[in-house]
Amino acid sequence: MMERAHSLLLNEEAFSQLAEHQRAEFIFEWLNHLKKLLPATDRTDLKHNQRRLLDQLSGVLIGSPGPPTRWLLAHCLALLYRLGDPISACLFVDRCNDIIRSRDDSPSGLPTRLAAIACLGALFEQLGRMLIGTFKETLTNLLKAMKNAESQGRYEIMLSLEKILQGLGVSAVPCHRDVYKAARTCLTDRSMAVRCVAAK
């Protein structure tokens, strides 16, 4: 059944026939294949399928993905926008910011928020200055979310900030002070993972 996950678009028919416990594995397998397939796909085909693919990836985003899946999702989204048409990337950044701002504390809300944070980092890392118009709002949103986040959230936010700064280069200099303050606070965090990523 898992070989049916090896396609550009998610095989929704095969996915719907799976038991609940198999679906996460199917999505992971599809994203893992997609990561390799996207760079090898013809740009015209990519643009032709981009809208449908974005809908499917958005479905994964709001489906409470676990850590390995959310990192693959973020990577695939950023690749899709870099290799395909980047025009609507700002809208996707806005969507991720809305998810992070939401106060959904349900069991499914946290993984979705963490996935949105990971997606922001990957998008800025790949598209850099193309997203400069959304940078200030994104940074403010992430730093605000940091204040109420648990250790896993703080870890993802610091990781995302690192990627955002790498992607924007000198364009991010005016905000380095704010990021430095957040990182300095995280250097004394009780979580070793948060301290390590803050030091980076």
Automatic annotation (TrEMBL):
Against InterPro entries, the record matches this protein to: ARM-like, ARM-type_fold, Laa1/Sip1/HEATR5
Q: Which GO terms describe its cellular component?
A: cytosol; endocytic vesicle; Golgi apparatus; membrane
Lineage, top-rank taxon, reads: Eukaryota
The gene name on file is: LOC117535422
Q: Which PANTHER family match?
A: HEAT REPEAT-CONTAINING PROTEIN 5A (PTHR21663:SF1), HYPOTHETICAL HEAT DOMAIN-CONTAINING (PTHR21663)
GO annotation (BP), single: intracellular protein localization
- Which protein is depicted? HEAT repeat-containing protein 5A-like
